[in-house]
Design goal:
By secondary structure, this protein is mainly α. It contains 19 helices and 2 strands. A two-stranded antiparallel ribbon has the order 1-2.
């Protein structure tokens, strides 16, 4: 299968749905069919790359670095598969009956275009192409924020747009300096040539890239655009964003991690930034009572674990970062879907106004328990293995202070999950004898599928970690990465 077709299918579907404007139900069925095809292709790509093969598609038969190329290795393949699965769950959750026909018809074309941009980012072998794909995703996200049409969604869009445009300016400026000192933006070429570049220019170029990607990953201190924005999105879209959008910044950091080995100060900066983000993010979450805002601050915290492990710059640390990113994407999407059902059934976003007696509470409580325990790192769920790997990587690098910050953050993570349980699910004395009729019908399919993905991921933690460890070795140990058979 051509990698170009894998990129073009969701893009063409998005434009078709936008121009055709079919009924919401037909638009949803079309999108679901395309997402199923993408899942099949994604698993096929992951299996091929698992054997060590690097898939390459050159445009116009121009070989790298002279032409644009799509290149997929183990790292790109597993992120592609992750997004394909999360897209399908999101489309199942996004229903005209619950979120409105107008919302569904407007959101689906943009989700498909954003999917195309994400696939392009995960497949590109060129840093400038990565910039283009990231901007395609961001433009789609800016439009998705406007769909609810409420005053809050319009106001909250401004911080996201301004901060991300500033990060994009840093990104393109860093690429300009990098091109000036290396003569290429092909990742393989830059890896080979950057060692001989002047130290000051190299530090400036890589520093701007790190700042841009850290901002897009919503790390402290430039993280507040995300808690302000994600709660205003249509809930299933917010679930997809929470699962994969901040991971785009993480993915970009993983891609340039071989370059950062030339500037240890940037790696140390990332490590400490990750540790403090993990702690400060969860402290901010503890103070929140709006459910999705609380979960958004949790995303800041959990990305901190990933970046801390990445900053250690060891193969095991990089593998831990990848594994934790996959785990967090599944868990956070699940929690957002649970939050959607809770908010709609209670007609409130405030935890203090939620009633545990609502219909569907048993199913939601079970799914929430699986996701919350996974997020907190309770064995035998995926979060336990993810945190164990991150802690072991920090222990091996003797980063005791950073480890202490992560341990404290883990305790507060469990406390914040118990806070949600206490208000939304725990039985307690109530004044009302009857339960008000819920605003909308409960559809358990999406939340059950999301929970099933967490369970499968937990059961397959060993093979998956072996796969990501090989991916970490691949991006850390060969200078010809992303070049194919040149």
């Amino acid at each position: 299968m051509s990698l170009a077709l894998f990129f073009l299918l969701p893009l063409a579907t998005g434009f078709l749905l936008f121009l055709w404007q079919p009924a919401a139900a037909l638009s949803r069925r079309t999108s679901l069919f395309v997402s199923i095809v993408l899942i099949g292709w994604a698993f096929a790509i992951t299996a091929k790359c698992g054997d060590g093969e690097i898939l390459v598609h050159t445009f116009g038969n121009w070989p790298p670095p002279f032409g644009i190329a799509f290149v997929v290795d183990r790292l790109g393949a597993i992120f592609i598969t992750l997004h394909a699965l999360l897209l399908f769950v999101t489309l199942v959750a996004l229903r005209p009956e619950t979120h409105g026909e107008h919302t569904v018809r407007r959101a689906l074309p943009l989700l498909m275009v954003a999917t195309s941009g994400l696939f392009g980012a995960f497949m590109t072998g060129d840093l400038f192409s990565l910039f283009v794909m990231v901007e395609l995703v961001l433009v789609s996200s800016y439009l998705l924020i406007q769909i609810p049409g409420a005053k809050r969604s319009l106001v909250s869009a401004m911080p996201m747009i301004v901060i991300n445009m500033s990060a994009s300016a840093l990104f393109i400026a860093g690429l300009g300096v990098l091109y000036g000192i290396c003569g290429s933006l092909n990742i393989a070429d830059v890896i080979e040539r950057i060692g001989g570049a002047p130290h000051g220019l190299r530090l400036a170029a890589l520093g701007m890239l790190v700042a841009a990607f850290a901002t897009k990953a919503a790390l402290v201190p430039l993280c507040f655009w995300m808690p302000a924005t994600y709660p205003t999105l249509t809930a299933p879209v917010a679930a997809l964003f929470a699962g994969i959008m901040t991971k785009l910044g993480v993915y970009a950091l993983l891609r340039i991690s071989p370059l950062l080995g030339h500037e240890p100060v940037l790696l140390s900066f990332l490590m400490w930034l990750g540790a403090f983000s993990a702690l400060l993010g969860v402290l901010a979450a503890l103070s929140q009572y709006e459910l999705r805002r609380l979960l958004s601050f949790h995303s800041v915290s959990q990305v901190g674990y990933i970046v801390f492990a990445l900053g250690l710059h060891t193969v095991f640390g990089t593998a831990s970062a990848i594994f934790f990113a996959l785990h967090h994407s599944l868990v956070k999407s699940t929690l957002y879907l649970v939050a959607d059902e809770l908010e709609r059934s209670n007609s409130s976003r405030d935890l203090r106004q939620m009633d545990f007696r609502r219909p569907g509470s048993i199913v939601l409580a079970t799914v929430f328990g699986v996701a919350a325990f996974a997020l907190a790192g309770i064995p035998p769920l995926s979060g336990f293995f993810g945190k164990l790997a991150v802690f072991w990587a920090g222990f091996g690098s003797r980063e005791w202070i950073g480890l202490a910050l992560l341990v404290v953050a883990s305790v507060f993570t469990l406390a914040s999950m118990l806070k949600i349980w206490r208000f939304a699910f725990q039985r307690r004395p109530v004044e009302r004898e009857t339960v008000p009729t819920p605003i909308s019908t409960f559809y358990p399919a999406a939340v059950l599928m999301a929970a099933a993905l967490i369970v499968v991921f937990s059961l397959a933690a060993g093979p998956i970690f072996n796969y990501v460890f090989e991916a970490a070795e691949q991006i850390s140990g060969i200078s010809g990465l992303m070049s194919g058979d040149r």
